[in-house]
């Protein structure tokens, strides 16, 4: 129950980074001799080689990664190993390891999100003039260009990228190490030196807050939950679009699987999983809020429950971003199926209503009239342009024939191809600039 080694061994790179900085600082502050420092650094190299090579002898008695490293260090270099923990507690040590881990992984997330967004932009660029229906309520609503639809995800991902960039820079700006157990330490340490070596912006100004704080875990989980929620919508659309009913896309074989008994089927497994992943991270976020909620200051063992949800979120996000990128890169869009679905002239109903509005009719009235026309056409089983009605004069019929429904959406942010090209350029520029 008490042990966390089964999962926190994953923190060893961060734990060693923190320990090296601590040892160097202790020597600079005169707490350790230069020879002791060098011996500790040599020992930490040996420990690192074992951990990286998979030969590190973990023991049943190691409660967590911090104790395992210290125990092994002392086995390898003798009693001087016991000096590493001078002016330090596992409370400020674990907070520092976790902050470093969150910073590393938030940086990874920024890169992976960037890669997916770039792939989406490249695929969008190849489909600037491919029309498909845009949907509301999953009913055909107004046609849009495929590039426009794909770019919607790019803007979501750019916001996600910014959120992770914030986590990597601001959420983990303050160094916990040096806070000791909770009140500070009995040595004249130089925390600024440690902060600088470990890449923190500043030293946590309050030792109590330093060891109690796990906001950066909440922030990572929150950013991951939102990003995965975006990916779940992409996954859901890929599932729909790859069905025979839609037939808009063929997903790459590497991201699909055959049915064990129905030879004609190709299942969009990866897209379905993409659709399903977000709730577990949303659950982890809610769960970890529960852990921190009403927790008295300062460190409490409850906080060890930060690790599994965070590690799971990191792995879930990584695999989901990879899958999304692979599926988008290998997707084959059926441009004819999409165009056919988009050419249903009922989809131009809004354009006819707008024609009446431009002639001075109130929008509500125009909406009512065109709604009536649509009902008549559907009841008669004919396209709108074949309907005989006093409300469909020459100009309105021309609108139906002209297939001009996309190019007329030439408002800022609209789907007209000029606007989509401008949007592509804007997305490229946003990707080229570093997140704030
Ligand atoms: N394994 C512990 C954790 O993850 C490390 C800190 C333990 N500190 C303590 N005072 N028991 O939270």
UniProtKB/TrEMBL annotation:
GO cellular component: cytosol
Pfam families, A to Z: ASL_C2 (PF14698), Lyase_1 (PF00206)
Location of this chain's protein in the cell: Cytoplasm
GO MF terms held by the record: argininosuccinate lyase activity
Any one biological process term the GO annotation gives: L-arginine biosynthetic process via ornithine
Domain Fumarate lyase N-terminal: 2-283
PROSITE patterns to which the protein is assigned, alphabetical: FUMARATE_LYASES
Reactions accelerated catalytically: 2-(N(omega)-L-arginino)succinate = fumarate + L-arginine
Pathway(s): Amino-acid biosynthesis; L-arginine biosynthesis; L-arginine from L-ornithine and carbamoyl phosphate: step 3/3
Enzyme Commission number(s) from the entry: 4.3.2.1
Keywords: Amino-acid biosynthesis, Arginine biosynthesis, Cytoplasm, Lyase
Family the UniProt entry places it in: Belongs to the lyase 1 family. Argininosuccinate lyase subfamily.
Protein name, as recorded: Argininosuccinate lyase
Origin species: Capillimicrobium parvum
Taxonomic lineage from the root: Bacteria, Bacillati, Actinomycetota, Thermoleophilia, Solirubrobacterales
Gene name in the database record: argH
């Amino acid at each position: 129950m008490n042990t966390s080694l089964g999962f926190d061994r994953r923190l060893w790179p961060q734990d060693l980074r923190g320990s090296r900085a601590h040892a160097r600082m202790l020597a600079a502050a005169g707490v350790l001799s230069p020879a002791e420092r060098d011996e500790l650094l040599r020992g930490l190299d040996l420990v690192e080689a074992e951990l990286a090579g998979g030969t590190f002898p973990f023991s049943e008695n190691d409660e967590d990664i911090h104790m395992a490293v210290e125990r092994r260090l002392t086995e390898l270099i003798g009693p001087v190993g016991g000096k590493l923990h001078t002016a330090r507690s596992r409370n400020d040590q674990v907070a520092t390891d976790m902050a470093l881990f969150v910073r590393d992984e938030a940086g990874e997330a920024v890169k992976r999100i960037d890669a997916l967004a770039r792939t989406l932009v490249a695929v969008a660029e190849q489909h600037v003039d491919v029309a498909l229906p845009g949907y509301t309520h999953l009913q055909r609503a107004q046609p849009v260009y495929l590039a426009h639809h794909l770019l919607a995800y790019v803007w979501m991902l750019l916001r996600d990228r910014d959120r992770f960039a914030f986590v990597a820079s601001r959420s983990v700006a303050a160094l916990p190490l040096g806070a000791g157990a909770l009140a500070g330490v009995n040595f004249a340490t130089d925390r600024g030196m440690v902060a600088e070596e470990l890449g923190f912006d500043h030293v946590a100004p309050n030792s109590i807050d330093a060891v109690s704080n796990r906001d950066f875990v909440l922030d990572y989980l929150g950013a991951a939950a939102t990003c995965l929620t975006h990916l779940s919508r992409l996954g859901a659309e890929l599932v729909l679009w790859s069905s025979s009913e839609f037939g808009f896309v063929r997903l790459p074989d590497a991201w699909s699987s055959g049915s064990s008994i129905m030879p004609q089927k190709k299942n969009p497994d990866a897209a379905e999983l993409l659709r399903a992943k977000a709730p577990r991270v949303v659950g982890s976020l809610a769960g970890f809020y529960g852990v921190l909620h009403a927790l008295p200051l300062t460190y409490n063992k409850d906080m060890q429950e930060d690790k599994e949800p965070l590690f799971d979120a990191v792995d879930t996000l990584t695999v989901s971003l990879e899958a999304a990128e692979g599926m988008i890169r290998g997707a084959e869009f059926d441009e004819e199926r999409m165009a056919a679905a988009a050419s249903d002239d009922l989809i131009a109903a809004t354009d006819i209503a707008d024609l009446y509005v431009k002639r001075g009719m109130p929008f509500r009235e125009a909406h009512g009239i065109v709604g009536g026309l649509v009902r008549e056409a559907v009841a008669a089983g004919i396209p709108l342009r074949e309907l005989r009605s006093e409300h469909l004069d020459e100009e309105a019929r021309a609108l139906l024939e002209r297939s001009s429904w996309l190019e007329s959406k030439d408002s800022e942010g609209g789907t007209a191809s000029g606007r989509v090209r401008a949007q592509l350029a804007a997305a490229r520029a946003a990707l080229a600039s570093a997140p704030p």
